[in-house]
Amino acid sequence: xxxxxxxxxxxxxxxxxxxxxxxxxxxxxxxxxxxxxxxxxxxxxxxxxxxxxxxxxxxxxxxxxxxxxxxxxxxxxxxxxxxxxxxxxxxxxxxxxxxxxxxxxxxxxxxxxxxxxxxxxxxxxxxxxxxxxxxxxxxxxxxxxxxxxxxxxxxxxxxxxxxxxxxxxxxxxxxxxxxxxxxxxxxxxxxxxxxxxxxxxxxxxxxxxxxxxxxxxxxxxxxxxxxxxxxxxxxxxxxxxxxxxxxxxxxxxxxxxxxxxxxxxxxxxxxxxxxxxxxxxxxx
Length: 284
Description:
By secondary structure, this protein is an alpha+beta fold. It has three domains: 1-30; 35-138, Immunoglobulin-like; 145-240, Sandwich (Immunoglobulin-like), CATH 2.60.40.10. Helix content is 20%, strand content 37%. The chain has helices at 10-28, 244-281, and strands at residues 35-37, 42-46, 51-53, 56-59, 66-73, 76-82, 85-86, 94-97, 101-104, 113-120, 128-138, 145-147, 151-153, 158-163, 172-177, 180-181, 197-200, 205-208, 217-225, 228-231, 235-240. The strands form five sheets. It has a six-stranded mixed β-sheet with strand order 2-11-10-5-6-7, with no helix packed on it. Strands 13, 15, 16, 19, 20 and 21 form a six-stranded mixed β-sheet that branches. The chain has a four-stranded antiparallel β-sheet with strand order 12-14-18-17, with no helix packed on it. Strand 6 (76-82) and strand 7 (85-86) form a beta hairpin. The longest helix has 38 residues, at 244-281.
């Protein structure tokens, strides 16, 4: 408030009041500039689900600022939102949520990229600002390809394989026998403490150093990441004992066949020799 001085003329008093009000106004109105922020600079989304990239305008004085979104892949930018419309590969899958958030309605693995929100405000003291957001789209694994031997022999080594290449992030693998998960370390479970297998969760390999009868069963593998999981069909693996009697009989049969063959050869040669001798001695 201005205290009136009775000694001043009325015109001078008005001038004094106006100058004081102008000084107050200039001291309290800041020089505004556009300032942006986001709730998260690194965003994860599941494939086929919606995700919103936030570009929040904290400070601005321009009534109609220019808002643009760009997608940057391999260092190359392309327009996502330009001249008040969605463009590019998000044309029918995204929309701008006022004032400047970008909503992707149906994300795909191709949307994994960096996104830059740019706001230009020509009436502001700081007339431009931008913010960069990294989007990674998680992809559920597909059914892995599994390789399980049909039959192995006790005491031999063997390997079961499992692999899928579609999931993102890369899948981790687990193996099941008779619908029971095999522990990563067999020594950690009393039930599997005598097993000789090892599991590589990164590659999907299940290796046995020495097969046991107890290792027979129905096996399947599961590929899993944060987006979901998938598993291959169950496959049966039999483990057979070493058949000593069977091996002996096979060797004996092979030896008998060799003897019969040699006797036949000798018989033919002996008959040939006698025939030759008879031709040379005439009647003898």
